[in-house]
Amino acid sequence: MSGERHWTPSSNPWAVAIVVTLAVFMEILDTTIVNVALPHVAGTLSSSYDESTWVNHPG
Q1: Structural domain that includes position 33
Q2: Which of 6, 10, 13, 55 has its CA at 20 to 30 Å from residue 32's CA atom?
Q3: Backbone angles phi, psi at 15, to 5 degrees
Q4: Cα–Cα distance for residue pair 4/47, rounded to 1 Å
Q5: Where residue 57 falls among pLDDT bands split at 50, 70, 90?
Q6: For the chain, how many structural domains are there in total?
Q7: What percentage of the chain carries pLDDT values higher than 90?
Q8: Closest Cα to residue 39, out of 57, 56, 26, 52?
């Protein structure tokens, strides 16, 4: 059947991959920034490091 049309996705898979990669990079960057800032947050709030780690809790 030469008249068949093949299905093609309506979005570019490379664009989807770039957007997902960018989102993962931003999440890792955000986590890194919070982990670097935790000692400063703990010192400013006069709390222990363990008490300040709730800031980075994913829940």
Answers
A1: 13-56
A2: 13
A3: -65, -40
A4: 68
A5: low
A6: 1
A7: 31
A8: 52
